[in-house]
Amino acid sequence: MRIDTNQPDVPTCPECGFVGPHTPWCSMRGIPVPQQPANAITRWAQETIDIGHAVGTERRRQLGKWGLQDHELTYWLGILMEEVGELARTIIEDADSEYIEKEAVQVAAIASALAQKLHYGGPV
């Protein structure tokens, strides 16, 4: 999906990066949002969509490998910390950016599984 680049300037939150009104999670809610050029918003939005696709692909890979998972929160934390440790190791070892990105996407996929578990309940 490509974003229309002919948008007028729209407000963007400097903290959460959200285009338009603040998200409920943003601590900047209620503070005026500066205007950003439409092309910067468009690039940001497309990059967010692209990374979202990468995270979704990784979630599907994990689902295929492990099946549906229904763990206690402390177990999810252990899985997440193990992935964060792998990411940290790749950064410390000065791995190439492609490998670091792969590890970061795996962290994001596990974090999204945890968020999904919290939001919807049941196995994810």
Characterise the protein shown here.
The protein is mainly α. It folds into two domains: 1-53, no CATH class; 68-124. Helix content is 59%, strand content 3%. The chain has three helices and two strands; from the N terminus they run ββααα. It has helices at 38-66, 73-92, 97-120, and strands at 10-11, 35-36. The chain has a two-stranded antiparallel ribbon. The two termini are 26 Å apart. Residues 1-7 have low confidence and may be disordered.
Give the gist of this structure:
The protein has 124 residues and is mainly α. The chain contains three helices and two strands. 59% of the residues lie in helices and 3% in strands.
How is the topology of this model organized?
Blueprint lengths: L9 E2 L23 E2 L1 H29 L6 H20 L4 H24 L4
Antiparallel strand pairs: 1-2
Helix pairs in contact: 1-3, 2-3
Task: Pick out its properties.
2 domains, 59% helix, 124 residues, 2 strands, mainly alpha, two-stranded antiparallel ribbon, disordered N terminus
